[in-house]
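Hi all, posting the design record for the shared folder.

TITLE: backbone redesign
STEP: 1 of 1
STRUCTURE INPUT:
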């Protein structure tokens, strides 16, 4: 799907059921700015050279590292509930 303006993209992410997956990215760009997001993306290194790696438990399954820290989870958005 192509958008003519950033406002169309925001509207799609916030109101269209098929745009929900885009909402975290839209919020990030709105809060930090597009240049800050692009700068951060330019600084990403290959996993083999990373000093720190964040991951969900599902994505981390089977990986090993010299040090592992497990946290309780991510903050929930309004209306969300933790799965058990």
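Okay, here is what came back for every position:
SEQUENCE:
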């Amino acid at each position: 799907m192509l958008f003519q303006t950033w406002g169309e993209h925001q509207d799609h992410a916030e109101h269209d059921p098929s745009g929900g997956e885009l909402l975290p990215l839209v919020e990030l760009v709105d809060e930090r700015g597009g240049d800050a997001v692009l700068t951060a993306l330019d600084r990403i290194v290959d996993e083999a050279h990373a000093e720190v790696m964040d991951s969900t438990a599902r994505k981390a399954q089977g990986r090993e590292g010299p040090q592992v820290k497990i946290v309780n989870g991510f903050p929930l958005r309004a209306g969300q509930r933790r799965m058990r």
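COMMENT: DSSP finds four helices and no strands in the chain.
Let me know if anyone wants the other runs.
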